[in-house]
Amino acid sequence: MKGTNLGEFEELVLLTIAALVNDAYSVAICDELEKNTGRSAKLGVVHAVLNRLEEKGFVKSKLGEATSTRGGKRKRYYTVTNAGKASLIKAKEVRDNLWSMIPGMALKNI
Amino acid sequence: MSEQHENISPPRWAEKLLSWYCKPELLEDLQGDLNEYFQRNVKAKGVKRAKLIYVIDIIKFMRLYTLKRSARNFQPGILLYKNYLLTARRNLLKNKLNAALSFSGLTLGIACFALIFLRIQHEYSFDRHYHHADRILKVSMSLRSLSNEEETRLGWSDAPLLNRLRDGFPEAEAVTGIAQLRGIQKIKNAAGDTFIEEGIFEADPAYFRVFNNRWLEGNPETALQEPASIVLTKKFAYKYFHEETALDKTLTLNNREYRVTGVIEDLPANTDLTFNALVSLDSHFGDWCFVYVLAQNTPDVKLFQQKLDTLFADELAPVLELSNMSGGYLVESLTDVHFSERKMFDPPKGSKTTLSVLAAISFIILIVSAANYINISIAQAAKRKTEIGVRKVFGALQKQLRSQYLIESAVLCLAGLALSFLLIATFSSQLVTTGLLNHVPELPVLAMLFCLIIPVVLVISILAGWYPAVKLSLINPIHNLQQQVSGYTRFTKNLLIAFQFTAVLTLVFVTKAVYDQMQVLTHHDRLADRNQVMVVDLPRDETLLNQLPQLKNSLKSLSGVVHVSLVGRNSTPTRESDFDTFTVELAGQQQIKMLAYAHIDEDYFDVLGAEVALGRTFQSSDVSGNRDVVIVNEAMVRMLNWKNPLNQKITYGSEARVVGVIKDFSFSGQHRVAEPMLFYLNNKTPEKLFIRYSSSRHDYHNLVKEVWQSALSGQPFEYRLLDDYFEKQLENETKLKNLLTLFSCVTVAITLMGLFGLLNINLAEKEKETGIRKILGAGMQHLLLLTWRDLGALALVACMFACLIGYLTVQPWLNGFAHQATVGAANILVAFGVLAGSMLIAVCYHLIKLSAVKPVKILKQE
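YS: structure for the whole thing
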């Protein structure tokens, strides 16, 4: 079995899916990621990550309605599963924990 | 505007590529995404860029997770493959005869192919075994007469070139010269064993810096430093010293003592410069030697050539101009030397044309044997219909059936490959003696070649297996009870047979032409009964000179001996004669000419059986060595356009008078037309003794030997027949002839096997038909005609193609000879005769089989 740890980029993608709610399909995810991180997100990379997240059971997907804009092809919409939500929360907890352990002085001069 | 963009679609082929490789469950979504990006890019970056990005993206999406898994839902598994092999084995065992026929055909084809491959590998490996072979250059020289632009290319260069190269060419790391000692040498070891040897060369100390031979004893740096040193090859050292070490022992070479300073490994078969021993130089070479240069880095041959051209113009051109000559140096890389144009005094060369013809033939044979396999396995398919039907009913896919047949043919081909290599390895020494192989191949070479040929054989197995596989896998189980498989493959079958027939006819056609050419070569020279002339080597020992006339007289008195001649320099036919410059009269002017000459005695022409055209031969009144009379050949008269050749003057130092003209005989061998030649009377330094005896009795050499030993006791007696010298010249042609003969036989055999296989199957298939025909009163001739009408027509068609191909192949080869055999009706007749003969064998077989068909047994139903 693949590990259920969440990589940094995986976490970002998962968060974006959650943020986009009902409109999370691959191109939209790419655009959103680019907008928020300022980095260019390649479709190939995002697609691979989506595939991996689905394998890990963090997201599930279903095909939407046919549209005329994409050469008649349907979009695949992603939603975060419970396991996905749990792992997001866990990741946030780890971070918060670590943040809380840093004494206030240490980061002041940054 | 934007609507226009909407209509632009991404490249179709890229879309197809995507849907070909992509998993269906991912496909639609991906197509959509890429399309969306594409439309965006069209707006932002233009159509061209967008298309490019689209294609790149599709290629980038080829990842493990997007790739389609095998379309089949289940894998045939190891069990099924095992079953394929089992079925293949059962089938082979069930039809032993057919299996044996197609298997031996394949084996023969592959063996021929491997044989030629070995030969080609050998020819291309010449002299590449030396370290830095790519850095070694050979310098040779050509001489041109300024009066008639005739060019003579020598394998040699002038000896002073060595020092000029050492001084003026910093890019040369080492320069060496090597030259064969003239004539035959007498060598004696300490125990007193004496042998006559050839292939002793003198070389300067740098030889082993240029060529890194493998040393068994001694030091390559110093071995040839001292005068009177000798380096032996292993075989040679064993001959004189047996098991003992040869180092620092002495050998007597022509009455002078030499110290053995080294022993090297025997030279491999694939080298052009072969020697048995190297002796050190006394001071410098004579006029000529082979020149080799080891360049510092990978040499620029063109630049080197330019520098040598300048050198030639500065140093040699002025000297040569005095004798109305010009010329130049020629630089070749050592690795090219084996295939370059042959120059005088060069060892025999390889021929790329011959090799490529042989390669083509071996491919043809391979395909002929594959054709056999295809025909037999398709024809046999009738028997396997049931098996295929059952497999299909149980759910076998076409693909699986195809792979089953491909596996069968691959197994058969690989087995044939293994067997053919086994055969070659076992019979390699016999193959070498018949000239089919150049040398016994070493095991690593064989193993390497085996691996190299595997892909070729696999391709052949696919070629051979594909057609049957496709045809057989298409059989419909429902129809297979009524349908004849052979019905729709008849065209293919006939095509393959026609191909085989053409191959047979062409090969026989070509072989016949080669045989004819050999006939022309051996019988063209006008020397009668060469096998009745014995050529004995004379020792180079001046103390014996005055005993020779007496030996000659006592040999003459032997009963049966007709003529005896003591001949000197350059006078053994087939040897390359030395040239020198002579002043002759041409068109009323005195001109300097390069001419070949020989030193002979008064009996020379009698021994050879050459006829006098005009004037006389030498008489006892002519004084030997005086050079006041000379005999020329007809070619000379033709060249100089002499109306009245007698009493013309030829000057070489002193003036000589022409006293006779000899009819042309092929002195320089059968490949060339007779060259102009001069014959001087000079028996002061004889090299050979020619003895002509009246009948070909076998024990003449014993008689001669007795006389020899009583006259010159203790001198080794070695002789050859004059015929052998000519045979040796024809070595290459003889080898080619043998190879072609073998190939023709193999092709005939393979084709015959194919015919037998087809007949057998045909008989089995049409058993009932034959029975019914017999009952209705068909005679044997009718039954035979049914099958053979087609085959006869195919043979005739094949004949036309074969004549054309054969003629086009053989004529260029024939053009290389001075005297050519004619290619014509005889070749066609022989080729057709061979094919008809082998078909007749098959007809007889067919007849016997047909007559054994008993209608009662076949048609009864119980």
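YS: worth flagging: The longest helix of chain B spans residues 352-393.
IM: good catch. Also Residues 476 and 482 of chain B are 10 Å apart (CA to CA).
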